[in-house]
Amino acid sequence: MRRFLRTWEFWLLILLGVEILILGAINPTFYNAENLLYATLDFMHILFAALPLTLVIITAGIDISSPSVMGLASIVLGLAWVAGLNVFAAAGLALLVGVAAGLFNGWFVAKTDVNPLVVTLGTLFMYAGLAQGLPSLLDLLGFKAYGSAGLAAYQYEGITGLPDAFIALTEGTLGIVPYPFLLVLLFALALGVLLHRTRFGRYLYLIGVNPEAARYSGVPIVRTLVLAYALSGFGAALAGVLLTSYMTSARADLGGDALLPVITAVVLGGADILGGSGTVLGTLLAGLVLGFLRQGLLALGVTNDLIQVVIGTLLVLVLATKQLLAWLGERRMNRRALRRKEGG
User: Fold this and answer.
1) Which residues have a Cβ under 8 Å from the Cβ of 299 and sit 6 or more positions away?
2) CA distances from residue 324 to 43, 76, 321, 330 in whole angstroms, order as listed
3) 239 confidence band (pLDDT: 50, 70, 90)
4) How far apart are CA 283 and CA 263, in angstroms?
5) 216: left (phi over 0), alpha (psi -120 to 50) or beta
């Protein structure tokens, strides 16, 4: 516990509590636990994409293709269902597509010297274009939905009328806790165990600190990076599937505005963009801080443009505070070392 009190995650937890207290003082509905938990549905896709992205950033990599993977997973789900596949089997297919997208990103990053930002920038546009053009492409290949003039009709209109059982994925609750939030917590727990209790997690940190040293130490760099990016693709696809359930519509542009919030949640959570540090818990707490802040400001009538300014300012202030705390900690350690030297 004493060690936790000195961590960045502890300060994020304090920030989250203070934020809820302030928003609740302005709007008492934030003091209602049920309302607070229900509000997570509006930003759950950010959490699902940000949590596995933490693993990628720890390796000094980046994956900015997640918004396009969300849209691709959504439209794949919708098209597969329209073509006659069971909606849950279609959701499974969408998740596989997300994993495949992540595998491609990871393989390209691991096998070439191209910067991960450049690689995933390219796949950001590639997956978005594939999502938009997939209905027309399937028509050209002869895949016709029963009773439909063609799948191209769904290219921009979206696919609605999804089964109630699928919609219930985001409408159902366990007590007062929505199913998606429970799934977020389980996903975070699984990734946390993977990162902090397995050899794979240690490999991620080693690659982020010094990839050359990791290579000479026998770390399977290619396999580790490919798996990290595959998890990122899976998280983005899972976000797309649940976002489809929440919006009751499969669209190629779902999640299009998620990129900045996703990256902000990871960086605010303590992950170093240069690699070597970061935790799943930090990303989860930072995602909640940003999500509740946005929901609170919207409830107070603040416009989206001003919300972006507030969130950007908060990010700068928090990161500046983090750097200040790190500097003070380093200075304290240097003083202790100097005293020991003088005493010896």
Assistant:
1) 23, 27, 29, 30
2) 30, 46, 5, 10
3) very high
4) 10
5) alpha
What is the gyration radius of the CA atoms in the chain, in angstroms? 22
Binned at pLDDT 50, 70 and 90, residue 147 comes out as very low
pLDDT tens-digit readout, 157-216: 678 889 999 999 998 888 889 999 999 999 999 999 999 999 999 999 999 999 999 999
Q: Which CATH architecture has domain 4-302?
A: Orthogonal Bundle (1.10)
Beta bridge partners of 178: 173
Buried-state track 222-233, b at ≥16 Cβ within 10 A, e below 16: eebbbbbbbbbb
Encode pLDDT of 75-132 as tens digits: 999 988 988 899 999 999 999 999 999 999 999 999 988 999 999 999 999 999 998 8
* Residues ≥6 apart with Cβ < 8 Å to 252: 71, 72, 74, 75, 128, 131, 132, 134, 155
Which sequence spans correspond to the domains of the chain? 4-302
Tokens of 128: 């978005």
pTM of the model: 0.90
Chain-centre distance of CA 123, in angstroms? 17
| Rounded Cα distance, 13 and 7, in Å | 10
pLDDT in tens, 308-323: 788 778 778 777 877 7
Residue with tokens 């990161």: 319
Beta-bridge mates of residue 177 = 174
Cα→Cα distances 143→72, 135, 138, 148, 162, Å: 18, 9, 5, 11, 20
